[in-house]
Amino acid sequence: MKKILGIAGLLFAVFAATAALAQQADGSNTFLSAYNLENLLQRVGMYGVLSIAASFVIVTGGIDLSIGSVVCVAGCVLPHLIASLGLPPFLALPLVLALCCAIGLWHGILVAVVRLQPFVVTLCGLLLYRGLMRKFTDDQTKGFGSQFADLRWIATGRIGITESFGVPVAFVLLLVVAGLASLFFHRTVWGRHLFALGRNEEAARFSGVPTKRLVVAAYAICSLLAGLAGCLFVLDVNSARASDFGNFYELYAIAGAVLGGVALRGGEATVLGVVLGAALMRVLAMAINIVGDSNQLEFAVVGAVILAGAAADEGVRRLWRRRR
Amino acid sequence: MTPPILEVVRASKSFGSVKALQDVSLQLRAGEVVCLIGENGAGKSTLMKLLAGVHRPDQGELRIAGRAVEFADPRAALDAGVALIHQELSLCENLTVAGAVYLGRELRTGPFLRQRAMEDGARSALRRVGLEVGPTRLVSSLSPGQRQLLEIARALERDARVLIFDEPTSSLADAETQRLFALVRELKASGVAIVWITHRMNEALELADRVVALRDGKNAGEIEGSFATHDRMVAMMVGREVEHRQRAARAFGDVVLSVAGVRTKAWPQAEVHLSLRAGEIVGIAGLLGSGRSELLRALFGVDPMLAGEVRCGDMLLHAHGPLDAARAGLVLVPEDRKLQGVVLGMNVRENLSLPNLRARGVWIDSAWEHQVAKDSIEQLGIATPDGEQVVSALSGGNQQKVAIGKWLLAKPHALLLDEPTRGVDVAARAEIYARIEALAEQGMATLFVSSELPEVIALADRCLVMHEGRIAGELQRSEMTEEAILRLATGSSVA
After folding, report:
1. CATH number of the domain that A51 lies in?
2. A206/B357 CB distance under 8 A
3. What is the domain count for chain A?
């Protein structure tokens, strides 16, 4: 709870600072404009799904470095199925999600049954899927052209609230995913078991928890959600090039989750924190774009903020422990 | 009289609001073995950490040969000749024996290690403790007993004059324990002072020149070794006389658990057959490595069985996992509490409900969970403010109660216990015994493994002795003596 308040406070502070700086920089209210806020929420929606995906695996004490490449798979295969092969969207979408889920299943089996290290398995996945996609698309850009506007509504649409402001559909999707993930984590047996095995896999096994099955499921859900986010991304920008689509997204995903209080050692996460963490990442990225002339400093700022957050977290924890 | 080689003078130490030590004094002379006894939480570990330079006293002081000293860190204590032999045998497993002996003070020329010199030095240090392994062996290949000797060799190589042992025999087999005792006597004769922290009264009786008891962070009495008796020591520790339990004869019910032809990885050639009746408490004794724990693990299904079948209640278990076993009413409280028995980072409530949620459906019934946690805490006497306390903050005995309690909630027919009271203090131990007996009264079949023969003799209705993976013999309550058990355990033919 404390962690969530902390991250919420940080989010608010960065948001306010950005708004003030933007005001100063160009005198107008571009940052706080309805258009910009819609944009921000839409991005939070898409990246938030990625961070929730990452937290499923991190909770087990593992890591998924292949998230960006799975985004790339979804981003290249979906337009291919729909625009090139002419498959109807209601068939193509589930197919893409199933493909991504299968990728996660495969990771999970390698980690839980074959007992390879998650870092190795998913690092190889990162390289493998991107390489395969480049071959598959022959480095051509994939997109939907000018058609399929109603399908792209899922990612780009707004649900109007006032005349000038609408809630992006992508953000609503995030709320749905976050709600389901939250139920899973905190209200179901599976979630409890996942937290237990993340803390101590052996003790969980001795308590009759089917640890292997759960780890496999966690990886499958992670890749499934990464695939969902990948579909949103490609529907949003309408063009995906395998060589760079989704590049580094695993790092955004993991950073958002960690900022949101997901412990890398496993067994600790709140979905609300993850959503706030992902939102903070997006606000930062946008702040750099608005305030600076270019996004050259983006990585540096993001790195510095996460480091500061982690240090503050540890500092507060120590202080608290000493007080007890 | 010479001044004590090491002296603690009226030391106090607090952690936050917890007063771990208050006004505690201890004197240690060269060539003396002082056994430090006390329940968990009595302050033994804190005192030991003061001696070894891990903590510094808030008040009071340490003196070496009459002069006040202050240890900045464990290294400083070591330089002053005070060495702690760790309970957890903390040597880095990937090092060679020589590397471990010289860890932190490697012999070198410039940046380069002098391997040969360290191997020679290690060899002579190992000879002093009677450990016959080559200096290039990996630490990971040594048995717990050998590692302990290695730790001692390491301390001696640094000219330690004071050795502090923390529960040194808890992971040792009997033969290794005897060897350690012999070494301690030798060290003592050569003028080394020894602090021996233990839960086992017999060790104090055997080794101590003086027994010092702590209770609630204060000195709670001291007696000469020759005057020490089991009852006197326990009385000092708990501050009252502990009555001996008399046990009424019980009638047993039907066979609940039967094990036929089970073979495990530890002893693939040996078959185990046994059966347990409702209400019966059966102990399994045997040396370390005789396949006792492996048998329990295979029965519960955390390790695969190579062959054989287990019948619990009316369910037949074969190639099963823990989940199947638990469904059949067969549960295991494992040997390594912190690693296997409980999830340390979760709270009491979550630990208690962990194995029992699944049977109640997919959604967690929060009201039910809080209620059973509250009930279990009350029934088992778990010392915790409430169910929300993180289990890692509990004492060993209370953690063990959680490890047992979570399975009792599953209402099992047969309870497997592996070293049920390892690292558990006297009072909690008595509570655990009472709980096991009360469960037996209600018809629970209990099969427990213990390395402590007095425990087997006190608790078991019947004792099975394992040797090299087989059940070498069975002793009824009237036949159970330490000698009889040891004779079977060591494989000597019964004359």
Report:
1. 1.10.3470
2. no
3. 1
pLDDT value of residue B395: 84
d(CA B266, CA B293): 10
CB B47 within 8 A of CB B21: yes
Does residue B148 sit in helix, strand or coil? helix
Residues of chain B in contact with residue A205, where contact means CB-CB under 8 angstroms, are: 302, 322
Interchain contact, A200 vs B339, CB within 8 Å: yes
What pLDDT sits at residue A240?
Answer: 93
A residues 201-230 near B, CB within 8 Å? Answer: 202-210
Among B238, B269, B302, the domain boundary falls at: B238
Q: How far is CA A16 from CA A19, A21, B23, B271, B427, in A?
A: 5, 9, 55, 72, 58
User: pTM of the predicted model, to two decimals?
Assistant: 0.80
Q: Find out whether A137 and A239 touch, Cβ atoms under 8 Å.
A: no
Query: B50, B21 in Cβ contact below 8 A?
Result: yes
B371-393 tens-digit pLDDT? 999 999 999 999 888 999 999 88
Q: Tell me if A133 sits within 8 A of A73, measured CB to CB.
A: yes
pLDDT digits (tens, 9 = 90+) for B258-269: 999 999 988 899
Window from B4-13, B58-67, B238-247, B415-424 with minimum mean pLDDT: B238-247
Pairwise CB contact (< 8 Å): B350 & A196: yes
Contact B362 A190 (CB under 8 A): yes
Domain that holds residue B230: 6-238
Is residue B273 located within the same domain as residue B422?
yes
Would the CB atoms of A210 and B364 count as touching at under 8 Å?
Answer: no
Task: Encode pLDDT of B289-336 as tens digits.
Answer: 789 999 999 999 999 999 999 999 889 998 889 999 999 999 999 998
| Torsion of Cα atoms, A281 then A287 then A289 then A291, to 10° | -160
Nearest residue on chain A to B360, judged by CA atoms?
A189
Contacts A265 to B, Cβ<8 Å: none
